[in-house]
């Protein structure tokens, strides 16, 4: 297979972890006889330094022309420490999602048996957790009209959704549920918010078209509690932009590190794959950043294009690194290995072998399809 892939390293540790994903992707190329074309482009704070824009026109055009985007991270301390900045690196990511129509964020949260001790939660609570969050990504309060009074004392953010915005991601989530354990949980705040009442009405109606899928609805406050008390009860979680952002953060607590969480952002024509963690500027250039989330995101990209054997080969290599404790400092308290070494180890263990691919499905994140 031939693919053109845009590489957007961004800020902080983004370029470092993305480099390890590309390293592993080149191993996939060599092992499975594929041909991938790579082209880099700036985004975020680094792009603002050179062009004055967090998303340069040339970067956006490259993304439109590419089959997929591998994204690093975005954000810089100088902007984190200046909340009054009119233009911020994060606006580049929001604009990229909007311009490319990346309306669905897909975030798998699954515990690995060999890393279960890394979570602050008890083993009997989180063992065998396997859920996927479908977060609406281009609507809601993050994109609504924002106002600030002249004296700066009153502010507002509009949370607005249409039936069309809700239905397109709802169908993706129900289709994913059909391929998994056939259970979907809608998370909203329908007892208070009119936008949530529209979500509940629309999703409930769509659910009638998927009679094999059991649907339940939870308010966001209850859902947050339930995720900490018994995350194993969930299969597919469907929710809006802001609530999905919050619940995804909780997912990193369940598995013990944001450095282990991948994600995909998909639309009708474009797809982007990025680690869940932020730019972590304090770790920049220290060779301590965890590349696994970025590598797992790359594996989701392979699955997106139907390259399931290749994706599983990457997953087996990642799992082996866990078993052998070849991990970065955020995992298991180890300080023996750095970003580059972990990337080298995983890429060096990506092989085309039925024996190596024959692992119990509980160890393979991508054993059940989450990408439509």
Automatic annotation (TrEMBL):
SUPFAM superfamilies tied to this protein: Isocitrate/Isopropylmalate dehydrogenase-like (SSF53659)
Any one Gene Ontology molecular-function term assigned to this protein's record: 3-isopropylmalate dehydrogenase activity
Amino-acid biosynthesis among keywords: yes
Family matches, as InterPro entries: IsoPropMal-DH-like_dom, Isopropylmalate_DH
Signal peptide: none
Domain named Isopropylmalate dehydrogenase-like: residues: 4-346
Protein name: 3-isopropylmalate dehydrogenase
Source lineage: Bacteria, Pseudomonadati, Bacteroidota, Flavobacteriia, Flavobacteriales
Gene name for this UniProt entry: leuB
């Amino acid at each position: 297979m031939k693919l053109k892939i845009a590489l957007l390293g961004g800020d902080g540790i983004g370029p470092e972890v993305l480099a390890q994903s590309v390293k592993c992707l080149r191993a996939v190329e060599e092992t499975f006889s594929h041909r991938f074309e790579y082209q880099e482009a700036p985004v975020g704070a680094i792009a603002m330094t050179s062009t004055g824009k967090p998303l340069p026109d040339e970067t956006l055009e490259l993304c439109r022309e590419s089959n997929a985007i591998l994204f690093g991270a975005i954000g810089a301390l100088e902007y984190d420490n200046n909340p009054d900045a009119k233009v911020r690196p994060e606006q580049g990511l929001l604009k990229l999602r909007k311009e490319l129509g990346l309306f669905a964020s897909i975030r798998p949260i699954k515990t690995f048996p060999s890393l279960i001790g890394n979570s602050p939660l008890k083993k009997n609570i989180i063992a065998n957790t396997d859920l996927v969050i479908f977060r609406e990504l281009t609507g809601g309060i993050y994109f609504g009209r924002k106002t600030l009074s002249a004296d700066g004392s009153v502010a507002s953010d509009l949370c607005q959704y249409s039936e069309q915005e809700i239905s397109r991601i709802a169908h993706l989530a129900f289709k994913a549920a059909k391929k998994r354990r056939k259970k979907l949980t809608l998370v909203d705040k329908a007892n208070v918010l009119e936008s949530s009442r529209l979500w509940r009405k629309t999703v409930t109606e769509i659910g009638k078209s998927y009679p094999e899928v059991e649907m339940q609805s939870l308010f966001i406050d209850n859902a947050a509690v339930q995720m900490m008390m018994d995350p194993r009860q969930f299969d597919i979680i469907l929710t809006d932009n802001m609530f999905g952002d919050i619940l995804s953060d909780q997912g990193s607590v369940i598995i013990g590190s944001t450095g282990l969480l991948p994600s995909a952002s998909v639309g009708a024509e474009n797809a982007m794959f990025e680690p869940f963690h932020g730019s972590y500027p304090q770790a920049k250039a220290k060779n301590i950043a965890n590349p696994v989330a970025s590598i797992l995101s790359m594996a989701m990209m392979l699955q997106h294009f139907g390259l399931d054997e290749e994706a599983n080969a990457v997953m087996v290599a990642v799992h082996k690194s866990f078993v052998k404790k070849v991990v970065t400092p955020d995992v298991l308290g180890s300080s023996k290995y750095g970003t580059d070494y972990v990337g080298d180890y995983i890429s060096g263990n990506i092989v085309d072998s039925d024996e190596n691919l024959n692992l119990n499905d509980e160890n393979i994140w991508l054993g059940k399809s989450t990408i439509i």
